[in-house]
TrEMBL record, chains A, B:
This protein's name: Putative pterin-4-alpha-carbinolamine dehydratase
Family to which the UniProt record says this protein belongs: Belongs to the pterin-4-alpha-carbinolamine dehydratase family.
Protein origin, superkingdom: Bacteria
Enzyme class: lyase
GO molecular function: 4-alpha-hydroxytetrahydrobiopterin dehydratase activity
Keywords linked to the UniProt accession: Lyase
An individual GO BP term: tetrahydrobiopterin biosynthetic process
Record-listed E.C. numbers: 4.2.1.96
Organism encoding this protein: Sulfitobacter noctilucicola
């Protein structure tokens, strides 16, 4: 069962994500980040990898794409706020983006 | 060279798209449509097919996805408005969605 991040664990889990560019979303218990790629193929390729993980974990992003830019918002509707699943998917998204630059 | 849709061709080209659910976007010379699928796999699968055509034609959508819903906006930045490329991609998107239901 997914649980909402407690006040105690919140900073520990979210701080490393804030360091990579994730931000709290105004007016929602959610995090968001803008990913920029070299072109559409890289942007959509990244989305495709992220989509497979999202489906595997049954935890899906809100995201939009315009050419080489992807804006992602993560939250957990079942708990009406951030859960460890959001942090897990955020870390995976960062990891995929990093792997594409290596 | 892509050209902006002329007043004469505009109705001929756009009318069939309005009939399938495309709408003019307020405040922009653009069209938009919301596609609903059975689940995330179908929604992202549809996006993936559309993405390959978009890249092939070097004409990319503005789109967002939340689980099984995809909102698409099409316009041609090079001509600051709608061109035949938008109509072509819109028809392709409709066609892919239709093929998935067959």
């Amino acid at each position: 069962m997914t649980e909402k991040l407690s006040e105690e664990t919140r900073q520990t889990v979210l701080k490393p994500l804030f360091d990579t560019g994730w931000q709290m979303t105004e007016g929602r218990d959610a995090i968001h980040k803008t990913f920029e790629f070299a072109n559409f193929v890289e942007a959509f390729g990244w989305m495709t990898q992220a989509a497979i993980w999202a489906e595997k974990w049954d935890h899906h992003p809100e995201w939009d794409n315009v050419y080489k830019t992807v804006n992602v918002t993560l939250t957990t509707h079942d708990v009406d706020g951030l859960s460890t699943l959001d942090a897990k998917l955020a870390r995976k998204m960062d990891g995929i983006a990093k792997s594409m630059k290596d």
